[in-house]
Amino acid sequence: MPADMSLIPMTAVAIRDLLAKGEITPLDLLDTLEARVAAVDPQVNALPTLCFDRARDHARALMEKPAGERGVLGGIPVAIKDLTNVEGVRSTMGSPIFADTVPDASDLLITHLEGQGGIVCAKSNTPEFGAGANTFNEVFGRTLNPWNTARSVAGSSGGAAASLASGTSWLAHGSDLGGSLRNPASFCGIVGMRPSPGRCAATPGVPFDQTMGVEGPMARNVADLALLFDAMVGEEPRDPLSLPSDGVSFLASALSARPPRKVAFTVDFGITPVDPEVRAICTAAAQRFSDAGVIVEEATPDLSEARECFAVLRAALFVAGLKPLYDTHRDKLKPDVIWNIEEGLKLTVAEIARAQEQRLTLLKRAWDFFADYDLIIAPSTIVAPFPVEQTYVAECDGHRFANYIEWLTVAYPATLWGAPSISIPAGFTTENLPVGIQMIAPPRGEHALLSAAKVLETILWPEPIVPIDPRPGA
């Protein structure tokens, strides 16, 4: 059928229901989405690699099955971050080194998602190897923010977030090490969740036993995100760290909208500056939880070691994963990646061991803290979307950062704890730019987290705020 633009603003949950009833087909969705991408993506550059022919082949194969056997998603298109291989589709990792790479096999995450009825239709833009919280690279250029195309979408799942905000996807995949699901969600006015390690299976990398980087879902609202999460979770033997599903629908948990009893709010975890306007927006949003009878108290666990711990463990991961490319293609790596690898090469075994001890100490404090509080709430990012030409935030509220990752400190706690964290829109600045607020639950606490996030989302946003047509910026 011709493209039906009335489908674009619909929720993924509503789309899934229409598919189940046979009122639309996955091919209808692809036709509509392809037309929307052609109309608006040139203004934001969120989805530089399209694979609609491959998607239609998968859709036709899926449609041969009875509706009840088409998986959780039932044929909904999904955008995949360009750090993850999709068979037969250009997969660059945002790097000139892999600019022309077309893998002959998909990542385990993709085969799992396609097994649950997801139709891969595009690859979303990302910084080189996901390093950096501004989405640009030498292969595809910059991704621009739909709310103001002169501003950044953050990163590293920036293309995914921009596609959701601009209506070129209903669901998108991302990944998170230092806020890469949460930062773009904040900057683009959408929802992104970093799950607990092991929830979403993926092909193991080097080192295969790391638990700081995870795959996760992104969507326009909490319920849609929970639907995608249902399709992403589950044990896969080829990923030794993957967790079995507990058999309870995360979408059902989100829709139950059960408020927590007591939450802690911190504007800075005691370890980072925060822009005054962001501080005010997030404080006001957190206090709205009291509308649902939730006790909101200002409190934070001790995170005094977090910056040092995160910096050391991240640098060690960069050496483990990228040292071979540093040895053979250093001239093609961007300066921030080179810096992070070289910081790792300076580390001693004693320094890495100290960081591992610090991480355990931080986790023990967190568990003690969660004995009193159901959730911790904090800003998702410390600033609103900044000019897109700016590589990273060099200064905030009078404090100058030493490197390109320090401005992301507000994202470190959930990563170091191995805890799930979701970012939902908190409000808008005077320039009408979105600001997100993150909610953190104890490890493996996604059911309660999604339920609570739905409560606050309903209070703050009774009407949807995306998708929008891209808005030109000066």
Question: Any overview of this molecule?
Answer:
It is a single chain. The protein has a single domain (5-460), classed as Amidase signature (AS) domain (Amidase signature (AS) enzymes, Alpha-Beta Complex). It is built from 14 helices and 15 strands. It has helices at 12-21, 26-40, 52-63, 108-115, 158-165, 182-188, 222-232, 250-256, 276-287, 306-329, 335-345, 349-370, 412-417, 446-460; strands at 49-50, 77-81, 119-124, 136-137, 141-142, 171-176, 191-194, 214-219, 262-265, 295-298, 375-379, 395-396, 399-400, 421-428, 434-440. Strands 6-8-7-14-15-11-9-10 form an eight-stranded mixed sheet, sandwiched between helices. The protein has a three-stranded mixed sheet with strand order 1-3-2. Strand 2, helix 4 and strand 3 form a beta-alpha-beta unit. Helix 10 crosses helix 11 (335-345). The longest helix has 24 residues, at 306-329. The two termini are 38 Å apart.
Write the layout of secondary structure elements.
Blueprint: H1 12-21, H2 26-40, E1 49-50, H3 52-63, E2 77-81, H4 108-115, E3 119-124, E4 136-137, E5 141-142, H5 158-165, E6 171-176, H6 182-188, E7 191-194, E8 214-219, H7 222-232, H8 250-256, E9 262-265, H9 276-287, E10 295-298, H10 306-329, H11 335-345, H12 349-370, E11 375-379, E12 395-396, E13 399-400, H13 412-417, E14 421-428, E15 434-440, H14 446-460
Parallel strand pairs: 2-3, 9-10, 9-11
Antiparallel strand pairs: 1-3, 4-5, 6-8, 7-8, 7-14, 11-15, 12-13, 14-15
Helix pairs in contact: 2-3, 5-6, 7-8, 8-14, 10-11, 10-12
